[in-house]
Structure formats: structure tokens, C-alpha cells
Amino acid sequence: MIVASVSNQFFTTLAYNQLFIDISRRIGMDLGGSHFVGGEKTDDMVKQVKKLNSNGIGATIDCLGEFVKNEEDTKKYVDNCYKAIHAIRDEKLNAQISLKLFSVGIEVGQETAIRNMNDILQEAKKYDVFVTINMEEYKNCEGIISAFEALREKYDNLGIALQANLYRTETDVERLDRFSPAIRFVKGAYIESGDVDINNKSHVDENYKKLVKSHLLKGNYTQVATHDNDMIDFVKKLVNEYDIPKDQFEFQMLQGMREEKQRELAEDGWNMVVYVPFGKDWYTYFMKRLAERPANIGFTFMSMARR
Ligand code: FAD
To answer: Which residue's C-alpha comes closest to atom 7 of ligand 1?
Structure first.
């Protein structure tokens, strides 16, 4: 636990170190970032998504926005999202959008975030593009869920990620049931305090399976976002047992993680979607992934070694 906390602090400090950010922007992604990030520019992202699509794999595109501090930053972020939506339309990509409410300004103000989301969702809706709101640190969880509720009243092209490591998630799913929403289930990337976080791997895994099973059996669209074979095999068995149609769910993984498994799932006829982050904030995204779960460091190096 102490090692995890020190390593979390270490990578979080690096993620926001201005010198390293400047160096990373100068050197670019040759340092290894390109394995995990779809590039710095829209064109790079389009290439990456086309590559996935040619292997029968869909994408969910995150236009990274890690340094949004004021209204003006949020406007730039919305413009980047428009560019991504238009690229999906123009290039006929099999792709959706994923974003953090932080990037549209939830820390600037709830109204700012909702106004920006309205703009993004309207544009996305025109071209039938689905948008998923990522889940962030626990302190933002309530604000994100209530923003989702307000937006989902108007837009059916909107889903949300929920974290199996939190005690509150089961109640949150019940709270959102009235929308029959698409939910992306994740185990949770943030280390939270013991009173809110289940904080025990096997209990989190059990909770993950319970949440996914219940959501699928209600007939709701389910995004199974995990690299864990145990979770994947559980879902495969479940859908066979209950005759759940393949178009009611999809597996999701992060770019650069378990690429062989991604291809295998797609080849076997399962819906497979890869999370493709892109933009100039790639370095901070990359470092934060290492900070959130120290185990990712091992997977990161293993994945790089396998290239
Ligand atoms: P873990 O519990 O980390 O690992 C379990 C087992 O899986 C490992 O023991 C190993 O056997 C296997 N495994 C895992 N990774 C690898 C690998 N790379 N190579 C080989 N074996 C591996 N978190 C949030 O908090 N909010 C979000 O909005 C969010 N969105 C996400 C979107 C997507 C598409 C994905 C895939 C993840 C997202 N996450 C998000 C991160 C998530 O919460 C987890 O931190 C992350 O996915 C690690 O958990 P896991 O289920 O993949 O497996």
C-alpha cells in the first residue's frame, strides 16, 4: 500500500512537471507514448482508428484535455471534439467519443460543463455518434452522475462509465435505471480512501461481475471495459447461458494493451472497441495511467517489449 502510494505520487508529479511536459512535446512520442496514444493530431488519430477498423475493431476516441482551467480552455476543447466528430463523419470511421467532464469544465462550473456537453452532444447526434462520459476521482463522482442525468433526459446518444471499486456504484446503477442507459463498467483507475473504495482485488472483481451481469440481464447495453481474462470469460459464459445477443454489449480495451487479445476477440465475432486517446496532452495521460495503478507499469513494459 505504501509502495503504491509513493509510486502514485511519483508518476502524478511527473505527469504535471512542466519541464517534462515541454520535453515530451519537443521529442514527441518516440519515447514510447505512441504505443498507448493515437497521436498528437487529428490525422494521426484517423490513421490509428482506420488501422483498428481494418481489423474489425471499433474505436472510442478521447480528445485529451488535461489542462482545462477556464472558459476559454473549455471552448478549445469543444472545438477539438467537433474536429473528431467531423473526422468520424468524413472518414466514415467506426468510432465513438469518450470524454472527461473535467475537460469540458466541470471544475470551472457545473453549468459550463453542461453547456459544453449540450453543444458536443448536439453535433454528435447529427452524425449518429455515441458519446461516453468517463468516470473520474470520487470527489467528482456525484457531479458527473447528476450532469449525466440532466443530459441523458435530452440525448440518447450518451453513456457513462461506472467503477466497480466503489461501494456506491450499485446504488448509482439503480438510480440511472430509469434511462436504461448504456454503461461502461470499469474496475476503477483511482486509489480512493477505504470508506468509499472496496479496496480488495477479489471483492472488486466479484462486484464487477455482479454489476455487469445485472445490467445485461436487464437488457441494457453494456460496455465491458477490462483487460482481465477472468472478466472476459465470465461475460462470454454468461451471454451463452442467458442467450444475450452479441449486439447488446461490447468488450473495450485501452490502446496498446493486449493487442493480440483485442484481435482474437474481434476475429471470434465479438464486438471489440479500443480506447484511442489523442492530442498534445498525451504525456500527462500516459503518466497518469502509470500513477493510477502501479500494476500498469509492468503491463506497459511488457507490452513495449512485445512490440
Ligand atoms: P486489472 O484488474 O488491472 O488486471 C487483472 C488481470 O488482467 C491481470 O492480473 C492480468 O492477468 C490481466 N491484465 C490486465 N492488463 C493486462 C495487460 N495489459 N496485459 C496482459 N494482461 C493484463 N477507469 C476509470 O476510473 N474511469 C474510466 O472512465 C475508465 N475508462 C476506461 C475505459 C476503457 C476502455 C478501459 C479498458 C479502462 C478504463 N478505465 C477507466 C481503467 C480501469 O478502471 C482499470 O483501471 C483498468 O482497465 C485496469 O483494470 P482491468 O480490469 O483491465 O484489469
So the answer is: 228
